[in-house]
Design a protein that fits this description.
The protein is 44% helix and 12% strand. By secondary structure, the protein is of the alpha/beta class. A 3-stranded mixed β-sheet has the order 3-5-4. Strands 1-2 form a two-stranded parallel sheet. It is globular and about 45 Å long. The protein starts with a helix and ends in a 19-residue tail after the last helix. 17% of the residues are buried.
């Protein structure tokens, strides 16, 4: 969904009455992924692209040998993304969450934690002076898939060893 978010914001920039800039930041977790197609898409959309190299995966899987790595990985990725956004001079971070993510997160919180809650469409991180936005929040996963099929863009598949093996699945 992040590639779709980039394309959506690039398109919105053409028609929006308030000017804004878009920059793509990808956090490379150290799993050997090739982001050259994402870089090419960003170049085509005239969006600056930054790939931040990290050792998140080796730290979590090789050094710490986490039994439940998803929470720690998410925190480390968010920290890296927020730091990179600050370094790039950004004041907002647009995430690729869609409606199905909202429903899944809400249900997981209800069944696994016994609480009603989910992430917000917009939230402010006062310690980072960043606003998180989720512009695809009202689009379903099918809407995003339709958009991606209609436009030539890369779809990245996660090589994470925990992909498709979590409670979310």
């Amino acid at each position: 969904p992040h590639e779709a978010t980039q394309a959506l914001l690039a398109e919105l920039k053409k028609y929006n009455h308030k000017p804004f800039e878009v920059e793509a930041i990808t956090i490379d977790m150290g799993l050997g992924m090739d982001y050259s197609e994402v870089a090419a898409l960003c170049e085509k959309l005239e969006i600056p692209f930054t790939q931040v190299q990290t050792q998140i995966a080796p730290i979590i899987f090789d050094h710490r040998k986490e039994k439940n790595p998803c929470s720690m990985c998410a925190k480390m990725r968010r920290g890296s993304l927020h730091a990179a956004a600050q370094e790039a001079g950004c004041n907002k971070v647009a995430l690729g969450h869609h409606f199905d993510d909202v429903v899944n997160t809400f249900m997981m919180n209800l069944f696994f934690e016994g609480r009603l809650g989910c992430f917000s469409p917009k939230s402010y991180l006062s310690n980072r002076k960043l606003t998180l936005i989720r512009p695809l929040l009202y689009a379903t996963e099918k809407d995003v898939q339709y958009f991606v099929r209609r436009r030539p863009m890369p779809v990245m598949t996660s090589p994470c060893p925990e992909d498709h093996a979590t409670e979310r699945e």
